[in-house]
Here is the input.
Amino acid sequence: KDNIEKIPVLDDKIESFLPSPQAELVSGIVLGEKTQLPFSLKLALRDTSTLHMVVVSGQNLTMLAGLVMRLSGFLTRKAAIALTVLAIVGYTLLTGADVPVLRAAAMAGLAYFAQIIGRQSDGTWVMLITAGLFLLINPSWIFDLSFQLSFLATVGVVVVAPLVSSRLAGLPLFLRENLAVTLSAQALVTPVIASNFHQFSLVGVVANLLILWTIPYIMVGGGVLLALSFLWSLPAQILSLGLNTLLTYFIYVVNFFASLPFAWEYVGEVWWIVWVGYYMVLTAIMLSLIYAKKEDSTGP
Here is the structure.
């Protein structure tokens, strides 16, 4: 059966263990099926600049790979890398291996692989080359919102976040990593969201910081729940209790910040040259962080 036939079956399995809108949220994060999300939740995700989390993106896959690497710390490095690659491949197959998933998996997998073998500086080139190859196949993808969010968020997580994290050394590790990823991903996807939805979220950074850490656990929990739902319903029901808690927390945070009267501001039409200048400034900041990191490593 093709992906069109598979996804409803998986959606039905999720809905049999989770209430609404938690079930639809899992379908969005794990399967990329955000079309089933309730309209009010879609608006809340848009208003809090968290919509990019509910797509099959390179950012989510990179975070999943990072979680698997951390959980496999008792293994040898080669075994941990192999397990991480298997997690990405398994997730890709689970979602039907359609084009958005393959794009995200290729960008995240290759860039993350360059990072974990100590070639972080090559991560940017790996993603640019991968994105370029995809655009050679279909140039129209450059105008696809999913492609734009996936690529930019992945660049933020893989390339920019480690540089930002190195400047936040005084913070606890968990907070430092989440803040670095949040700031980096938000900085890169903001122009795309503003251009497409004509608004700028004033609560996006805080909302993302509070829920970002749940994404890899929801992805793992959702994948395991789907597997168990076909094999053994009792452990699937037990797992769904913990997963439902995470999803309820996610939804509560998003709805709370979206309900604030100052949650977002309208953004009118902006000339493309403004966004080019914006990304040029971000590039300059990133280069300065790279230079500062090199200075710190070489010493006086």
In short: The chain has a mean pLDDT of 80.
